[in-house]
Amino acid sequence: MTAAYVLFGILIFGVLIAVHEFGHFMAAKLCNVKVNEFSIGMGPAFWKKQKGETLYALRAIPLGGYCAMEGEDGSSDDPRSFTAQKPWKRLLILCAGSFNNFLLGLIIIFCLYLGVSSFASATIAGFQKDCPYERADGLQVGDRFLSIDGHRVRQYYDVGDFLDAGSGVYDLVLKRDGKNVRLENFEMKKIQYEGQEKKLYGFNLGYEKATLGVRLRHTWDTAMEFARMVWMGLGQLVHGEVGLRDLSGPVGIVDVMAETGEKAASTRDAVCDILFLSAFIAINLAIMNMLPIPALDGGRVFLLLVTVLIEAVTGKKLDPKYEAYVHGAGMVLLLGLMAVIMFNDVLKIFQ
Q1: In the Cβ-directed half-sphere of 162, how many Cα atoms lie within 13 Å?
Q2: How many whole angstroms separate alpha carbon 15 and alpha carbon 104?
Q3: Lower Cβ count inside 10 Å, N or C end of the chain?
Q4: Cα-atom radius of gyration of the chain, to the nearest Å?
Q5: Catalytic site residue 225?
Q6: Active site residue: 21, 134, 225, 323, which one?
Q7: pLDDT digit string (tens) for 5-35?
Q8: Cβ–Cβ contacts within 10 Å for residue 81, how many?
């Protein structure tokens, strides 16, 4: 089954890239920007079709793609070129790819949650016997955790994570009878309760029925949790807590997908697990691609805003070739980084 999961992983990754590039493509068409080529995959083309002004192509390596717009990487005299458009149009086109990835992540999560009858909730369903925190000025049955020490509680497991990360004295915000209740400097620690093998805080979290509204809320909260995990990972990278060997590219991602499928109890579970991982990767791509790094869409957005600011102050229009130089240099560095990451991915597979 490993080969099947690898192929499935490659297909999923190809879809993520295609959806991203399709976002640029659709935004460009809506803004009347000339698109020279829309390609799914990289390398030599095994299928091409010219339709109007745009060449559509499927290429041999299903781990990439691009939407080549007129004047995107240099000057052009065509009035429908990318650089000839108003800043808001260029901004819309640049952000459309990441928007599509984020939207795809939401759709995948929601579809997976259609088969769920109930969700674990951050709402207190009961207490251990003699729990000291169950009182009128403390916690009560029905309280739903909204935030702990300023951290938004989105999933039930956030409650334990934020409490364990705290000092034992917390600022809590709870939803009680439709109103927000604040408990400031609330002392709480784990206690050994009778009949329990380990120390507990003493309250039990419950479940809520999966209505349409609840599904939509959990879909959004899951996406936000994924986004938080991405930002935490970036923070660890900046602070040196993780290194280059911990990063993964297309090869590593497909390998993780295949490994996820192999560990599942059934084929159905494997497909669901891989799709759930795909939703995380889609949201990961949406965020990472908007980082202000040259050659990424976020880098293009950053330079666009800088260019607009400079032109507004000086009254002079900058030559697009200088921006193209920056993105060209960034692309060379990015390709070098991707080559190193791919080498590490292959090495980890053989190890």
Answers
A1: 21
A2: 10
A3: C
A4: 25
A5: no
A6: 21
A7: 677 777 888 888 889 999 999 999 999 999 9
A8: 18
